[in-house]
Design brief:
Strands 3, 4, 5, 8, 9, 10, 13, 14, 15, 16 and 17 form an eleven-stranded antiparallel beta sheet that branches. Strands 1-30-20-25-24 form a five-stranded antiparallel beta sheet. Strands 2-19-26-21 form a four-stranded antiparallel beta sheet. The chain has nine helices and 30 strands. A hairpin with a 5-residue loop joins strand 24 (421-422) and strand 25. The protein folds into two domains: 43-58 and 312-511; 78-309, no CATH class. The protein is mainly beta. This is DUF4270 domain-containing protein.
């Protein structure tokens, strides 16, 4: 284990023994093995911690690997709407559609994240949709937009990548032109497999069955006029011309009742896009003309932008405003998307200097955040994960990784931040985040005692930062995993009136001064 400063007075032989012990993987992981795995049997120090909430301004959403689409009505934070603007791209420039092409159908496809379960009694495949929040109908429309998405920022002399933020929905909607290409007043994603006929490599139609997805037909006239009939035109010569011509599509979700459905989607999936099915004519001398089945695919992207719309309730706004950067808050409000988060301050300078003077081995350090069960209804609506990160570097703490594999790739530490601990009724009790390595480094003076950010997250692996349009106190960026979840929670803060549920910062140690 890491030793504190005073250990320099210990004889060299003892230090070598202690250094050897510190290299033991089992001991280093959590330190509990010293006492038969019971870390609670070790001496515990309750360290000082201050935590307060911050409401987030618009967040950058044109750097996301996935995108939210739909309406989510959470039990704590209310309704959250997410829409998507996407460019369209040609698979290659200057396409040829053959002789006398005739457009037969146009199909938009967006696969859902799903898991195949055991087949039913009839042998049919059964699927569960993943990353879908809610199961009530919404209104879904897909329209052409005249909004041009820049790759580079004209205000920075086109030297920096352009950033787009989550509050651009009204601007995009004002740029919609023409009638919707698709409109469904009662849309709900289906768990059923999708079957359709598609030409194979020899041009013969085969029946294809695939996992659940949004698969809908679009009007022929639009694509006949703007794609097929423009063969050989400058608009289809390359993707720069094409994106300037078509601009993009806007996927808009609207609530139709007090509930809704929101989906996490991969618009860049190889199966996502718009496929034009058409026939062309092959003329052979002395023979009857032959109709050949063909297809042409338009891809989504490369630029996509999520837009969010949400209003926090007056009660939650007041709770966030009541937080104090000096003393902390009674509650911590964590909400994904363009939501809210918490800032964590560990120790103060006086306490830190006192701890550095002690002859302690740090066996484990952790933060325990208790769910405010009086306001959070629990069950499946609660976020499984929260994520703690360094607000100075916007990177994870050293405890996030446990080492490297044989290829040199970093390995995530599963005990750093386990999923939400629940009771027998599936209601959330607490999140415990182990920050042992981080605290050792602070006490040894190897790292600064920086402010930490705490967010809910859709996936603890999505740690790349997304910029805020305007920094809020020490917060300038949030992890992408937080941007991609509509969920939220409320936790007891360091000033909670329930002392048993207050935020706890515990350090387990071995005193070797005797």
């Amino acid at each position: 284990m890491i030793l504190l400063k005073r250990f320099r007075s210990i004889p060299a032989v003892i230090l070598m023994v202690l250094a050897f012990i510190s290299c033991d993987d089992d001991f280093h992981s959590i330190g509990g093995e010293l006492v038969g795995g019971q870390i609670d049997a070790l001496p515990k120090y309750d360290a000082g911690v201050v935590a307060y909430s911050k409401k987030l301004p618009p967040v950058q959403t044109n750097n996301l690997p996935l995108h939210l689409l739909g309406v989510y009505n959470g039990p704590v934070y209310g309704s959250h709407t997410a829409n998507v603007l996407t460019q369209l791209s040609l698979p290659s420039g200057n396409p040829s559609f053959g002789n006398r092409p005739r457009l037969d159908s146009v199909v938009l496809t967006l696969p859902y994240f799903s898991t195949r379960l055991e087949a039913d009694e009839q042998g049919n495949n059964v699927y569960r949709l993943d990353s879908v929040y809610g199961n009530s109908p919404i209104k879904l429309t897909v329209s052409r937009t005249n909004y041009f998405i820049n790759d580079f920022d004209p205000d920075a002399n086109f030297e920096n990548r352009q950033r787009y933020y989550s509050d651009k929905g009204a601007v995009f909607e004002n740029s919609i032109i023409g009638d919707p290409l698709y409109e469904n007043d009662s849309f709900v994603p289906s768990t059923a497999e999708v079957s359709f006929r598609e030409p194979n490599q020899t041009g013969v139609l085969d029946t294809v069955t695939v996992a659940p997805r949004l698969r809908v037909h679009l009007p022929l006239e639009f694509f006949q006029e703007n794609i097929i009939d423009r063969e050989g035109s400058t608009e289809l010569f390359n993707n720069n011309n094409f994106r300037n011509f078509i601009r993009g599509l806007y996927f808009k979700a609207e609530p139709i009742n007090d509930d809704g459905t929101m989906m996490l989607l991969n618009f860049r999936d190889s199966n996502a896009g718009i496929i034009l099915y058409y026939t062309n004519t092959i003329e052979e001398e002395g023979e009857e003309d032959v109709l050949e089945e063909n297809s042409f695919k338009l891809n989504f992207g490369p630029n996509l932008i999520n837009t969010y719309s949400q209003e926090l309730s007056p009660q939650i706004e007041a709770g966030i405003q009541a937080s104090n950067e000096e003393t902390g808050g009674e509650r911590l409000y964590l909400k994904g998307g363009q939501g809210s988060m918490a800032v964590i301050d560990l120790f103060d300078e006086e306490e830190l200097e006192e701890l550095r003077s002690r002859d302690w081995l740090i066996n484990e350090a952790n933060l325990t955040f208790y769910v405010d069960q009086a306001t959070v209804q629990g069950g499946s609506t609660e976020s499984e994960n929260i994520y703690l990160y360094d607000l100075t570097t916007n990177q994870p703490l050293s405890d996030f990784y446990s080492g490297r594999d044989q290829s040199g790739n970093l390995i995530r530490n599963p005990i750093h931040a386990p999923v939400l601990e629940r009771d027998e009724d599936a209601n959330g009790i607490f999140y415990k985040i182990r920050i042992t390595s981080h605290i050792r480094e602070i006490l040894e003076g190897n790292t600064d005692n920086v402010k930490l950010g705490l967010v809910v997250t859709q996936n603890t692996g999505l740690i790349n930062p997304a910029a805020l349009r305007t920094p809020v106190g020490p917060v300038s960026q949030v992890p992408i995993g937080s941007v991609l979840t509509p969920r939220g929670t409320i936790l007891h803060g360091n000033l909670s009136s329930n002392e048993d549920k207050r935020l706890k910062f515990n350090i387990y140690y071995t005193d070797i001064s005797n």
